[in-house]
Design a protein that fits this description.
There is one protein chain. With about 120 residues, the protein is an all-alpha fold. It has one domain. The protein is built from four helices and no strands.
């Protein structure tokens, strides 16, 4: 019987617990950050689909002013704007009001995130 063994096992168990707890905390923090980003992306999508809603511009600028996501948001807005302008060019006076409204919103949103 070695009297030092139980202490070594205890120390090893403590270290393993600390490492696994830290890894779990990192995983949970990463999952929470991903969920928050997902919520913001969905809010931008909703803003593009319904630009007349009260918080539409705020949803876009909240994510667009974050340097990590600026390029993604600006590209998304630009891509949507080009598509809507294509509809406007093809349909002319018959362009649906919703498309015209979205064009105006997208132009303002791009300016808003570019100015920050």
């Amino acid at each position: 019987m070695n009297p030092g063994r139980p202490a070594a096992r205890s120390l090893l168990a403590g270290l393993l617990f600390a490492v696994s707890s830290s890894a779990l905390a990192d995983t949970v923090a990463g999952d929470l950050a991903a969920m928050e980003l997902g919520r913001k992306v969905l809010a931008v999508r909703q803003a593009i689909q319904a630009p007349g809603e009260a918080d539409a511009m705020r949803a876009v600028t909240d994510l667009g002013h974050d340097q990590r996501y600026y390029i993604m948001v600006r590209g998304w807005l630009t891509y949507q704007l080009e598509g809507d302008r294509s509809i406007l060019a093809a349909a002319g006076e018959q362009t649906p009001h919703a498309v015209r409204e979205r064009i105006t919103f997208l132009e303002k949103a791009i300016r808003a995130i570019d100015l920050e």
